[in-house]
Specification:
- The structure is a single chain.
- It is built from 22 helices and no strands.
- The protein has about 475 residues and is mainly α.
- Among the domains are: about 1-10 and about 35-55 and about 260-315, no CATH class; about 85-225 and about 380-464, no CATH class.
- It starts with a helix and ends with a helix.
- Mean pLDDT is about 50; it is low at about 1-255 and about 290-300.
- The structure holds a DNA duplex (20 and 20 nucleotides).
- Keywords: DNA-binding, Nucleus.
- InterPro entries: DMTF1_DNA-bind_reg, Homeodomain-like_sf, Myb_dom, SANT/Myb.
- This is Myb-like DNA-binding domain-containing protein.
Amino acid sequence: MTPPSMLRMAEKRKRQDEENNHSESPNHKRRRVVQNGGSYGATRDVYDHPSSPDGESSSPSRARSLSSSGKRRQRAKPTFSQSQSTSKGKGKEPEKPPPLMNRFFSRLFSSQPASSKAAPPNPFSSQPPLSNASSSKATSSQPSLSRASSSKVPPLQPSLSRASFSDAPPARASSSETSSSQASSSEASSSQASPSQPSLPNASTSQASPLEPLSVKVSPSKAASSQAPALKVPPSNPSSSRPPPTNVGASSSRTRIFTPEETERITVAVETYRDKHNMTQREVNDLIQKGLGVGRTVVDTELKKFWSLVTATCSGKPRQKVIDFCRMRFHNFKARGGHWTPEEEEQLAQLVAQGGTKWAKWSLVMNRHPRDLRDRYRNYIICGSNRASDRWAPEEEEMFKMHVHEALEALEREKAAKPDNSFYDRPLDQLIDWQEISRRLGRTRSRLQCMSKWKKLQRRAEST
DNA sequence: TTCTCTCGTTCGCCGTTGTT
DNA sequence: AACAACGGCGAACGAGAGAA
């Protein structure tokens, strides 16, 4: 059976499911569009889990989407995370293990040295009873409010800061420059501060850091190596460090690094290998995922042959790109995009709390793609029950702007101190560590929320 | 009806770290 | 040194809810 025909089968089945489940979540619909490009992972129920067809792989997601949609329609209700009060309690921010690399911005907030990797606390573990979003926000804002009132830093006008630096050519941080942040990560200091009582710290704990002096530390070795940072070629769009999309205007405007032709060649190569070795697609998928969580380097000769075969179909692409591409598309994990159940989130939180961020390892436990685990954790679970999803309160917004303003000021000082360092040529707000801002807000907002909020504030300021 | 805000989710890109 | 996995950023998308 050819992939297109299998995909059509999958599409047909999904359409039939839709007819029986009119309440499919919007994300499912969108994903289907995306997956039209062809993903064995996306259509895994064609190949895999014969004992768990749609009913098991998709229906839970749909069931979840029902509740999710309902939740989102009732904005006043607690968010998913907030609704976990019975099982999670008041969430202390489940600080991630100290990112060994971090944007150097992190250290602007902290003078504490980075600790070694440690398992972050479980945000779902026993914690004080959950308060609602507004109360958690109020709690988290108190220390900073006092700071705000005493601070000489006025509320930031987003457009101002941006305008101040936006004419500088963007330049990506060199590895040496960014790695200098390892000297001190606030995430590190946070997790280091309370490794033995992961469940107790709360927003107020994380708020203590705003009162710390803004200091900058650069390890000598890193500083020395940062003299000549390697810069990427500036993109055509000077306001962004990212290259312009290659398919702007396409129905799916996401940048595609692999053309349909390349995708087809890869698919053919995989199928050829599969047929030649009399394997099932599931077995091939497992082969492609082989190495994940089992060691860091592929030593399997047969696997090397396989990758040589596949990567040869895209000679212009870096080998690792091809491998990543395949691992995103050929897998036996649970269909990507499925909504997360509270049980899954709790399980992931527990796994991370117990063993750290071993995504490949946990992917085998949870039957979720490692990147799904990673993204879910860092975007949502890390906030635990603190995260609010309602509109930003004015005072919360001011607090947010104050933190961003502080960060930009620190960046300005850094830039002034290193005028020759092209790392600072890009708009400074592009150097902001939103994870850190989120932490400073007491995890009442995720990094994505913070990032999005900043952009909205900018748009708002620019339109007025 | 239109616009704005927010959401959940996916994934491209780049850098760092660890293993062989 | 090469490779593989991981970490981090942030753009993109479609959609719902509510305000204008």
